[in-house]
Amino acid sequence: MSKAHDWDGIVAESFPHASEQAPEMENLLLDRQGLGEIRRKVDAGERLTFDEGMQLHDHPSLSAVGLLADRVRRRMHGKKTYFNVNLHIDYTNVCAYTCKFCAFAAKPGEDRAYTMELGDIEKRLAGFRGSDLSEVHMVAGIHPDKGYEYYLDMVRGAKRGLPEVHVKAFTMVEIDHMLKISGKSESQVFDDLREAGLGSCPGGGAEILVDRVWKATFAEKIGPDDWLATSRKVHENGFRSNATMLYGHIEKPHERIRHFERLRELQDETGGFQTFIPLAFWPYNSKLEGYGKVTTGWLDLRMIALSRLMLDNFAHIKAYWVMLTPPIAQTALSYGADDIDGTVTEEHITHDAGTTAPMLLPQKDLVHLIRSAGYEPVLRDTTYSKLEAVKG
Question: Which of 60, 159, 327, 348 could hold 197 in an S-S bridge, CB 3.0 to 4.6 Å?
Fold first, then answer.
């Protein structure tokens, strides 16, 4: 084997940033991996097709796919990697629905069931006065005994406790539920949420935007069409939101690619999605525990890379360390991710499902993860409108 061929293998399999030293070598390597046409489209900013997405999904070289995704990431963000100082509050685990992948939900009367009220939220946020906390992320189950005002109270409580905090709350499942039980028009509901202090919405509840998976695993709550329709309503009423995909359970490769396509189509229409977050499935304590295993780093990094390559109209791809674990999230920065979420402080949904990630990553640890991977940490607010490079 020639030295040149040795170098091909070393670079293609080990160094996602080869183009920083030798872009022509990077192009040659990608072409030799059979990705020349996709590379040319990526470099020209052209949209990848479903078949090209499948080709990347099934390609034997993860490093080659990651190399392509890293090109897009570098073109869009350079070495900047974003994070914030945030707090998660899962305000109730009581839920009327039974989703097979969920280990968080409880039924009324169960010993582990809990429900927070307005005063609890206010007190929790008041404890962060004088801190750098800029965002509270609030999601929960669909409590069968709580009415419309309860959801508004969750937002009001956060703003009373910490008036300057950005409230990112309610999945499309919760928003759809509010619209149904409010007795008000769509515009009135969103006006109420705005007046209460809602700033934006997270992206949970999408799972896999394919009817087969919906019917098999989460048929009691809204399905793909309704999730997308509710996102459209959120965007049309002036709120930004994120989008997610829960992967690693019963979905098939082509269903993952279709999920990307459906999100991309709605983003073309509304422009309301801010960030995409691939969520690795943790099976423990769920009805799918015996079905599969924890996702591998190989799959996690491929999903990050595919996200960056397929979602050409999304500004940001987030490596959510709570589900990926910090080491995989750090590595994902070289596979297309430009955001590593935030400090989180407290999270129950994924921890109930068995994640080995910690509850909290202090700001200094996030900065260390970013810098030690060769990137530049940038402290952001929720909407990326206020950015501050971290010094020192």
Answer: 159
Which of 20, 50, 77 is the last residue in one of the domains?
A: 77
What is the rounded distance in angstroms from the CA atom of residue 68 to the CA atom of residue 247? 21
Both 67 and 154 in one domain: the answer is: no
* Dist CA 349 CA 284 (whole Å): 11
Please indicate, yes or no, whether residues 34 and 127 belong to a single structural domain of this protein.
no
Number of domains in the chain: 2
Same domain, 194 and 310: yes
Q: Are 258 and 266 in contact (CB under 8 A)?
A: no
For 163-212, what is each residue's pLDDT tens digit? 999 999 999 999 999 999 999 999 999 999 999 999 999 999 999 999 99
Report strand pairing: 387-389 vs 376-380.
antiparallel
Residues with Cβ within 8 Å of 346's Cβ and at least 6 positions away in sequence, in order, are 87, 88, 89, 359, 360
Burial class from Cβ neighbours inside 10 Å (0-12, 13-18, 19+) for residue 47 reads exposed
Q: Examine the domain organization and report whether 9 and 88 are in the same domain.
A: no
Q: How far apart (Å, rounded) are the C-alpha atoms in residues 240 and 173? A: 16
Domain boundaries, position 42:
3-77
